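Protein in question filed below.

…
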Amino acid sequence: MITKGIAFILLATLSFSVMNLIAKDLSTLPAMQVVFFRAFGTFFFVFPYMLYKRISILGNNPMLLSLRATVGLISLATFFMAIQRMPLGSAISIRYLGPIFGAILAYLFLKEKVNSKQWLSFGVAFLGVVVMKGVDFRIDNYSFLLILTSALFVGMVFVLIRYLGDKEHFLTIINYFMVFCIVASLLFIRQWEWPLPAQYFSILSIGIFGLIGQVFMTRAFQLEETSVLAPFKYMELVFALIFTYFIFGETYAPIAFLGMAMILIGMLLNVYFKNKHKEKVGL
């Protein structure tokens, strides 16, 4: 049975997939210019709504909110830079290492437990990345470094959001992120290029689809447990593979699909082993 939470997570992943597809379509523009369009499109709707609802703009933890916004900016910028140089499906797959980096960082800094079977699942996912890098020669070393950096900073975002989750309104967190992206991207305005007429729709819609994805994902996690939603989150890769095949003609060798599958299996095993451990200790 498809619950409302599952329906929302599927809509969120579809929206994020379209957003990534739009970012790929804007690959002829500098990455920081695409970051601006992504951020401003969301800020345009979020900020007035926060004023209307009298939601705190500055929040209670401005330093941590600023740190979360900074690491999110780095993750987004390096992701957009990577997809300008490598296939979108490969980039999304490798970026799925973000939760693993998050778990490792939470283990190091928040003292969250990671059981032995979770470490095994991490190994499966990392091995999948090695397989993909080894067989797909479209992933050069610089692109690989960019997407790994993006995944690492996604992990940092997860840890910071986990800490800030019950201390700040989710729109305050999002708004900080958008403002930092806008300000940082404007520092590179001299490198911007005038978009083609065919790209105007992408420019107008990239922030909207990003916002839709964030709203539906937030609602999904409010209605369902993470363990229920996690498998559906990875539908983003399926959507990306379908869209990029028909729109950009991106194809992959069978062994590259094996690498993607190993990453997904590693991620799902991590969720499964974590939940089984919680059941065992009675959490």
User: Anything to note?
Assistant: The chain has a mean pLDDT of 88.
